[in-house]
Amino acid sequence: SPPFFSLFFSLFPLPSSPSLLLSLLLPSSSSLLLHFPFLLFLPPTPILIAMRVKQVLIPVVLAAMLVAVFVLFTMEHSNHNTLKRIANSLLKDNDDGRQLSKNLKESMAKVAEKKATSLLGNIQNMLNGGGRTENQFMSMIGADNYLVDKGTPYYKKEETIKEYIPFPELRPLKEILDEWNTDDPNIPNIPYMINGSLEVLDYSNPKDKQRAELLRFHEVPFKLYNIPFIQETVKKWGDDNYLIENMDKIYESHVITTSKSNKFRFFTNRHDLSYQAPTGMSTMSFKNFWEKQLQAETRSLNSIHYYLQLATSPQYRWIYDDMHEWRPQNNFWFGEPEKNKGINCRFGARGISASNHYDGGRNFIAMLRGSKRYIIAPADQCPNMHLYDRSHPESRHSMGDWANLDYEKYPQYLKAKATNVVLKAGEVLYLPSYWFHHIISNTVSIQCNTRSGLAIRGRKDLVKCGFYAE
Asked: Is 99 helix (H, G, I), strand (E, B) or coil?
């Protein structure tokens, strides 16, 4: 007998035969009673008690296992149906419903194979930058010595500024929109439309870089050029095969934002089914997506457009390898590297227009392919921007179509002031915290940006508009 049973029977002396031990392993006591009917007349013993407990426990355990299997199956089925409902609501009213429905069915088939929860996790990771996964990625970067020791901060604390450098000269927003309609992606032959009123500085020139450092410290926008690592990335990302290979080896299918026109109005409350979403969602390989972007060079603005928003996560490490100076560290690009949330990239087609809005972080924007137009304005223009309030899914974004503004409906726009700048491949725009920006892709374009912390300058203006607490 095994040691356990030897010890057991030494404590409770009973006949210790193989038949008895075998009977203890069976789901019933029938075989035991067949061999030892006299046991029916004995008082309870530890062996008999264990045998009777076994008789009760085995059915209970089996029942619990069946319940667990049923619950797991129900949860899996529920997740699958939940994804269907979300996707169907997002695809509602799309012009190319047939194609999107086909894509949806293909996606659902993959869900059945790979589990709905995994796909939902990938969707959230790609759209939102990964949540905890992104924080873990930042830790991993530090473990690989990508995140340098904190040491001395590159910039002083903003609180030490006694008087800010003035902002660039601004012009009436209506004049800018009248001169160059936001539905026209072609760059007009108007010199001041390219750089607006911003300073344009050579990153490789020590004096220019020093000036750029001062402007960034004072939260003033500017343009940079001649940046070696950006120039190298522009060359690499100009190769379609390089992009396709790196993107599609990570995910076979990417989550793509879709719009029935060139207008993209982004929102945050994706689970409120009563809200009529201005954009939809599709899934496709990056190769398929990129082919559609290139075809959009000659496509009507009122046809369906596709837009890929990518927040870096561990899978996209190749982006950090290319944009190596944008690993969080104490250098020119980071005000507070410990508050950096990674690199965000946007892949857009010619003519795509992203509605006016503001973001909180100190923002460096690099154009890696094509060009984009930015209409920008400081936070003190908040009262004139007709913003959706904090409770609205499109909070922080402006109302109205800037290509055809109704000034009677939105009269405050007549008081708004802004400046205009075109960012071309190889150039970087510094957009300070809380600055408004309306973006138009002049060509098929790739733009990546990185943020680090919130500034002080401009925050009070947004407090007055109801977007931050004192």
From this structure: helix
The structure tokens listed for 362 are 């100190």
- 216, 193 Cβ separation under 8 angstroms: no
Tokens representing residue 96 in the block: 């190319």
pLDDT tens digits along 168-199: 999 999 999 999 999 999 999 988 889 999 99
Contacts of 167 (CB under 8 A, 6+ apart): 220, 221, 378
Rounded distance, CA 243 to CA 446, Å? 11
pTM of this structure: 0.71
Q: What CA–CA distance (Å, rounded) separates 341 from 454?
A: 12
Residue located via tokens 């046809």: 303
Q: For 396-441, how does the pLDDT look when each residue is reduced to its tens digit (9 = 90+)?
A: 999 999 999 999 999 999 999 999 999 999 999 999 999 999 999 9
Give kind and range of the element (H or E) at residue 116: helix 116-128
DSSP secondary-structure letter at 169? P
**Cα torsion through 67, 68, 69, 72, rounded to 10:** 120
Q: Count of CB atoms within 10 A of residue 225's CB?
A: 16
d(CA 462, CA 454): 13
Contact 344, 316 (CB under 8 A): no
Q: If 0-12 CB within 10 Å is exposed, 13-18 middle and 19+ buried, where does residue 202 land?
A: middle
